Amino acid sequence: MPSPASYLLLLNPAKSFSLRRLSHPQPSPRLQARRPHVSCDAQRGGGSRTGGGGRREAIPAGASKAKKQIVFFDAAPPVAQPQQGGSAVEKGEGEKATTKAGSGNAALALLRRATKKTLAVLSNLPLAISEMFAIAALMALGTVIDQGEAPSYYFEKFPEDNPVFGFITWRWILTPGFDHMFSSPVFLGLLALLALSLMACTYTTQLPMVKVARRWSFTQSGERIKKQEFADSLPRASIQDLGVILMGAGYEVFTKGPSLYAFKGLAGRYAPIGVHLAMLFIMAGATLSATGSFKGSVDVPQGLNFVIGDVMKPRGVLSVAPDVFNTEIHVNRFYMEYYDSGEVLQFYSDLSLFNLDGKEVMRKTIKVNDPLRYGGITIYQTDWGFSALQVRKNGEGPFNLAMAPLKLNGDKKLFGTFLPLEDSDSSNPSVKGISMLARDLQSIVLYDQDGKFVGVRRPSSKLPIEINGNEILIEDAIGSTGLDLKTDPGVPIVYAGFGALMLTTCISYLSHSQVCAYVELFATGLVHNNLITVANFYFSFHGTRYGHCKMEVQ
């Protein structure tokens, strides 16, 4: 008895034939006795014809039509068998190729398993949280430990003979590089590990969730919908009316036969990926800042110049000096503003920038919290000092007397200088003179050669004062500006990362909701002229919040 499965053989003299398996019920004995034969007309210009028994008959070339035969066989044509035998060399080469292919597949499978296990470990949530806590702890420690000081500073502050808290010495600071915390190998290594965890989580969790959320799910069974956590049955509801209501609520609605699928808030599924990318941007910018920036500080008296490259020092292995380092900066003027109490309110520096040709390319007056930016370099106003005091003695001069900072308890500043006088008593080898002290640039306190207070003069008053028979006139107080210079290529990346982080965090609050509906038609007919059915639909938002939709069908 022939097999219940037959094979369809399509014969076309001009084209290759195809073989399809057709499944059908067991034929009756009457049908088994006959060979089904189907023919169809095909436009041809010439060729041949195959008969029911497999014979091929010539067809005249001028014939307008040719018969394309379709013959059903009770059994499949024989499958070509590989040739047996062969030389020993061919067999050996085949075995070697098989061995190589097997070893290659085994190595590939091992690599895939190792990759899968590594991704599973890196995407572990407790591991990522531990990494973030460790990074936060190191950042807090970096604010406690003074950064960027000379090694002698740490030798003095964290001595071995008197450890802080009984065990912290300078070795705990300098050995792991905690004196430059944010560029230390420990800190950068934790950042790299957290970045790998974020990428692994995105690849193994977030991307599959987005793919599932984007898939249209048309349910073909009412029982399947009833098994959902939030579901309801509407006896006389219309799927078209439900679609209109959902579209009015901001849903994207799709229908397929008796099924409906609607969703909204798909951006909320993309938001976690955006949060991860924003965090990667922040960490990449922080790493670039720590390893590719320059920094320098300088105190420049009014009227003097300096070259940017002379004061800048690299901060990491990726630091590359730009051409703008050849720029020369001239301090045109330095001045301060004061409170009514005499305390310093604000201080300003009028700066001019010159290129290699001596052409002024920029000029700006900077102050605290209002820096100068040029060619990727930022110049901050951070400090001030007292450089020199211009005085006249008995009409001679002016003399520039250097002002030296005096150490005081507290953060108050005090500067002093000394104007020597001729000693009429040659038996006294000690040098005597006039002492001058100043807290700022607006007033000078003068003492005679015996150390007695004489008076106070303002540089702008132009009033002379007589001390020990000498007329002293204070003409000007020359201040010095304290500037911090920095190039930080990672700042734009960090700002962009924080901006993206805030945006994606807000987007993540957009809940992704889905609604599925299915209509089971049992009977049709007119029940009332105006049929009104009120039904309730429930749907979930990320499994945490629930909404209520009221549908009125007319």
TrEMBL record:
Annotated compartments: Membrane
Primary residence: membrane
Superkingdom of source: Eukaryota
Keyword Membrane applies: yes
InterPro entries given in the database record: Cyt_c_bgen_Ccs1/CcsB/ResB, ResB-like_domain
Disordered as annotated region, ranges: 20-60, 79-100
One Pfam match: ResB
Annotated GO CC locations: membrane
Span of domain ResB-like: 127-388, 392-519
Transmembrane segments: 119-145, 186-205, 273-294
Key word Glycoprotein present: no
Full protein name: ResB-like domain-containing protein
